[in-house]
Amino acid sequence: MEDLKKYIESGILELYVLGDVTPEEKFQVEAMAAKHPAVKAELDEIERSMELYAEKNAVEPPEHLRSKVLNSIVTNLADDSTFAARTWEHEHKVVAMHPKKASNFYKYAFAACVALLLASTVALVSLYNKLQDSNSQIASLQLDKQHFANTVSLKDGELEVLQDASFKFLKLQGTTKAPESQITVAWSPAKKKVWIDMRSMKMPANDKDHQYQLWALVSGKPVDLGVFDKTADTSDMKEMKSIASADAFAVTLEPHGGSASPSMDHMMVIGKF
Q1: Which residues span the domain enclosing 240?
Q2: Structure confidence at residue 231 (pLDDT)
Q3: Model-level pTM?
Q4: Which of 173, 178, 240, 261 could form a disulfide with 194 if both were Cys (CB 3.0 to 4.6 A apart)?
């Protein structure tokens, strides 16, 4: 019984009604219809449905066009001596064999299939666009979630700096290169953590080709602690690279990405404990 249901739902019956089957498939459908009343009933139902659809959407051609086509066919097939007889015979054959319902059925059935295909395509495109919108919204929510998580993590770090007594605060003062520049460094030798206060920073905004680089002076040798930017919307604090000991801190202006060693002629601020 399950196999019979699968056979009915396979679509072969619709293709049979449309005439789009091989001779072997046609023989098989007719054999199944003769053997199983359920197949025969489904086949009759498909034929009635498509016939009703075809009749509902049928468009009758103008009468003058029908006459013109019939006369053209008669003229091409007849000769002078048998014109009247053949015309009468042809007209009667047309009346007797006119498969109005059958021929229109296949034509409109094909049109119905095309219409269904177009409707399905439009529905799929609409569904795809909605899916893309949903994916974009999900991606946006994920970015917001990540941004929120980063903000919370940053605030926790700032709170740690302010509450942890192991942190020392050092205000780096401007050099002759930038006498009015200054920035505050928070450093915990015990935790080897270094933060810079971006809110109180007073330094010229760097361009896209340069960045500020923080250095720690350890026994007279500079140690890279990372780069940062000064922009119009700079705020909060920024954690730099870790270091356990330092004699002083300084900031230089370097090419974007930083340098292996500081450019002494571009030193902006410096300070030591």
Answers
A1: 168-272
A2: 78
A3: 0.44
A4: 240
